[in-house]
Sequence to fold (890 residues):
Amino acid sequence: MPKVKSLEDLMKIKEQALKDLKMRGSQKRGKIVVAMGTCGIAAGAKETLKAIVEALNKNNITDVAVIQSGCMGLCEVEPTVEVRMEDQNPVVYGHVTPEQAERIVKQHVIEGKIVSDLVVRKGEV
Amino acid sequence: MEKSVCKEHEKLYRELDEFIQEVEGDSSALIEVLHKAQQIFGHLPIEVQEHIAEKLNIPVSKVFGVVTFYSLFTMKPRGKYQIKICLGTACYVKGADKLMDRFKEELEIEEGEVTKDGLFSLHAVRCLGACSMAPVVMIGESDFYGRVTPDEVPKIIRNYKNRGGK
Amino acid sequence: MAVSTNTILICAGGACISAGEKSVKQVLEEKLREYALDGVVRVVETGCMGACDLGPIVAVFPEGVYYQKVNTENVKKIVEEHILKGRVVEEMLFEGPQGKIAAEVYEEHPFFKKQVKIATRNLGIIDPMNIDEYIARDGYFALTKVLTEMTPEQVIEVVKKSGLRGRGGAGFPTGLKWEFTRKSQSDKKFVVCNADEGDPGAFMDRSILEGDPHTVLEAMTIAGYAIGGQKGYIYVRAEYPLAIERLKNAINQAREYGFLGENILGTGFSFDIEIRIGAGAFVCGEETALINSIEGKRGQPNVKPPYPAQKGLWGYPTLINNVETFANIPPIIIKGADWFASIGTETSKGTKVFALAGKVKNTGLVEVPMGITLRELIYDIGGGVPNNKKLKAVQTGGPSGGCIPAEYLDTPVDYESLKELGAIMGSGGMIVMDEDTCMVDVAKFFLQFTVDESCGKCTPCREGTRKMLEILEKITRGEGEEEDLEKLEELGKIIIDSSLCGLGQTAPNPVLSTLKYFRDEYEAHVKEKRCPAKVCKDLIRYVIDSEKCVGCTACARVCPVGAISGEVRKAHDIDPEICTRCGSCIEVCRFGAISKVSP
Fold:
């Protein structure tokens, strides 16, 4: 990584990063973001993350990235998971146990149907 | 036997010395060095404090003063798995004292003590900052348990017993 | 936590309610209770599902079965057939397009309404381990703007004009602090980020460090440029291992990109940041104690003045701000002082992050404009007190703060109003207490904390708080005398006036504020030897209601000291002499026969 030397350099990184965030032009079709703050981990986010990765592997899904993020504040419904699929509004799910995680992969990622009963919020912030 | 213990110790001291070299013997890094030493030795016996004082070129009294000032430093050995029960306000309001009682009962030790097999020690700690998950228990440095009820205590202990000394 | 096997969604859109949804919901809940399913099946009201002509609509998950035109009669079938026996009620099935519904049924959680996110703008949105995602959300643009377009004086002017005040507790104007440090003449100056978040119940700084570490690095570098400093330290609690790990990663990335180190952005300005880890001492949150701790010494406070802005780390001028304060800086630089000053009240600008915890439904981290009322915070965002209990008080500011009683819920939250009530904004911990909380016990809890954490350097704090604690212990044991309450007040005032640092100067607050608002509770303890909230062990007894007790022996088996006696199938009895008031019996009794009484 060459050092950033100007506003133009920074703009370039931002544009590329925005593309990556929205997943345009990359090989990924979507991403699943698991909130991994201390509160999320205390609520079992590590197991949830594991279950998501396993569910994706089991179904041979390679074009969905799994990444971690910080706490979005609503600790009451931890573990929380955000699913961002290409050209769709992101959806945040709450109380995602390993079993629910498997359901989310099956229903949302594979079948494209939102898991309504777990939804906490929808849309860009 | 005696010899191997010494060898083992030598290795630990070497690891500590390497860290002290990394901070370039900077005496303001004393707290970092003590953290590292406690991680290596499990606690901070006076011999280790003397060693650190010599390497950082400061009086032992200063090292001792710092060790005794901060609650995270200990001169007594601790268990392999340190069970830390958060007694912050939110956890207290949600019944952390009952959790502490249950742990004491199950492990048959008091706060600050180590079980006979050396596996567990029990500590009341300051707010861990996971108040929304109160009451919270942390075991070791990274295992968090949230919304723990007294009835879950035996299961948690069993998990670590099964892992044993590993 | 109860595990729900099914979730039933009922549409609560306008059309469905007019079609009778309210009573459908009631019948549904009654039916569930009848089959003792109310604990395992969750009933959730949702927004309009968009199929109003077929309403009311009810959906059962996880199966995802939708029913239409549900009324008070056929809703019973859903419970008896679908939930109980797992058979779909064919004749009620929804005939419209399901996919359309699925996308529309939920409504945003009320938790997110009324929040304005500035300091926590990136939390849960970006990957904290990836600097590019921070940049995608305008990260490091403020630093670039500052270094390429602004003089240090202009930066300070913007911060001053924004009206930003310290978010760590005292609320000192941030811009002034920057200006004082800038004006101190020295060839070496430091920037320190106070991340020693010690107040029990506050976790916003941890969340920011864990979820958005770069914002702190960027703001510290901006501060370094503004005051003329070369080096920064972040002092983090050892209790936050995850925060430390993510900060370390962020520092490495920022160095790689050239936002830290020599000749930043080719402008000739150099600045670097190091992490220093605490070792468990609450007093280190006080600036002079923190400085001593960074220097590797015992973390004891010094007499002020000189202030750190004049003589701080190793005797050089030092700027100390806390994590949340720093997190506000980049948006202020990018969006301008006027934008920030337009949010909040006359004297308290911008937003404040609060950690909602205790007896409140939606625990968590919220960022709201200054001036919002406590009621909006606790009820509209927090969802109120669970289990239909009554709110008794709100504790703000941790061990330095106070308890605000329910009658002041409409107070706007800003630095001045809270202080007037005897509490403080503090770092933003907000703990909700209900009728089961004993205020004397709470005061004792906080004082126990300060007694443990008093560093011992000055006498009023070391000895005074201990004396206050002894009196409180006496009161909760039922041995209090009437003059004890006056003694507490007198001692409290002396400690406030004569202590060396902020710890001692605020330590009596929890006692004085509860004495002010809940004096009747203190008096009940002292005069009647009674604990109205039934918490103080020496003042309560456990009794078994012989009418309700069926003699199942569950309580006798669980009692650790064998204080419960009685024959099988006959009412049991608790011997108050042996009973240790551990409460195990209440937890196991399935008949609600055991209760606590305080004479």
Summary: The interface with chain A takes residues 128-130, 132-133, 136, 142, 144-147 of chain B (CB under 8 Å). The beta strands of chain B are 81-86, 120-125, 137-139, 143-145. Residues 2-22 of chain B form the longest helix (21 residues). The radius of gyration of chain B is 18 Å.
